[in-house]
Amino acid sequence: MCDDCQAYAHWLGRVDAMLDASGGTEIAQMTPSQVRITAGHDQIRCVRLGPKGLMRWYVACCRTPIANTLDKAGVPFLGLPVVFMRGHEAAELDAALGPILARIQARFGKPPFPPGSHPRGPLALILRSIRLLLAGTLRGAGRPSPLFDAQGRAIVEPLVLAPDERAALRAKVEAFIAGPASA
Q1: Total Cβ atoms within 10 A of residue 69
Q2: What would the 3-class secondary structure string for the chain be?
Q3: Do residues 85 and 37 make contact, with C-beta atoms less than 8 angstroms apart?
Q4: What average pLDDT score do residues 34-47 get?
Q5: Which residues contact 155 (CB under 8 A, 6 or more apart)?
Q6: Cβ atoms of residues 80 and 28 within 8 Å
Q7: Rounded distance between C-alpha atoms, residue 159 and residue 8, angstroms
Q8: Which of 3, 104, 159, 174 could join 108 via S-S bond, C-beta 3.0 to 4.6 A?
């Protein structure tokens, strides 16, 4: 239920596809070496909500989110919005990804919250993520990456939103959260 993920959904114009009733986005955490993009490379774009924000990759033609990454190649982290994989059967996707481990950042969400929602992030999840990052680093799982070239450069220059664009998105997120509560 991260406010930046909500802002990104608004920026893409994909709120209905990306956000659940509580403002959450289902993200599968994996390593770049686990992801292959087999077509449409000419349509890949990147945006950063601010100068130091995550790199948020998307498909230009349909504004479908692809992934969230840090700005350094080789880091074994890639957050893949599940909406990017929706062409697969739901049961196949659920079997491949496993159960939802946590619902985090509920402090930015819209009540009522799903069971187990956490205002920030549970310590167990943070420790698990650190363990996965360390293991991925030792295995070299940050490379190859479909979004960085062999020299570690982003495959496209990211668009960095201006402060006024970011403020406009914040206003949309606030309106979304303040809107009618879901039933």
Answers
A1: 24
A2: CCHHHHHHHHHHCCHHHHCCCCCCCCEEEECHHHCCCCCCHHHEEEEECCCCCCEEEEECCCCEEEEEECCCCCCCCEEEEHHHHCCCCHHHHHHHHCCCCCECCHHHCCCCCCCCECCCCCHHHHHHHHHHHHHHHHHCCCCCCCCECCCCCECCCCEECCHHHHHHHHHHHHHHHHCCCCC
A3: no
A4: 96
A5: 41, 44, 147, 148, 149
A6: yes
A7: 13
A8: 3
**At residue 79, what are phi and psi to the nearest 5 degrees?**
-95, 115
Tokens of 83: 């909406």
* CA torsion through residues 97, 103, 104, 106, sign: positive
Q: Which two tokens stand for residue 182?
A: 């879901």
Amino acid type, 37: I
Task: Say what the pLDDT of residue 183 is.
Answer: 45
Residue 154 pLDDT exceeds 90: yes
Task: Report the first-to-last Cα separation within the chain, whole angstroms.
Answer: 17
Distance, in Å, from the CA atom of 21 to the CA atom of 45, rounded to the nearest integer, reads 27
182 pLDDT above the threshold of 80? no
Beta bridge partners of 79: 29, 68
